[in-house]
Amino acid sequence: MKKYTKIFAILTAMVLLLSVALTGCGSSKTNESKSSDNSSNNTSQTQQKKEPVELTVWSHLTDPEIAKVQEIANKWAQETGNKVKVLADQSDFQAFSTAAQSGKGPDIMFGLPHDNLGTFQKAGLLAEVPDGVINKSDYVPMSIDAVSYDGKMYAIPLSMETYGLFYNTSKVQTPPATLDDLIKVGQQVGFQYDINNFYYSFAFMAAYGGYVFKNNGGALDPNDIGLNNDGAKKGLSLIRDFVKTYKFMTADIKGDIAKGNFQNGKIGLYISGPWDVDGFKKANVPFKVAPLPTVDGKPMPSFAGVQAAFVSANSKHQQEAWDLLKYLAQNTALPLFETGNRIPVLNSVLNNDEVKNNDILNAFAEQAKNAIPMPNIPAMTAVWTPAGNALQLVTSGKATPDKAADDMVNQIKQGIATQQ
Question: What's the whole-number average pLDDT of the chain?
Answer without folding.
Answer: 89
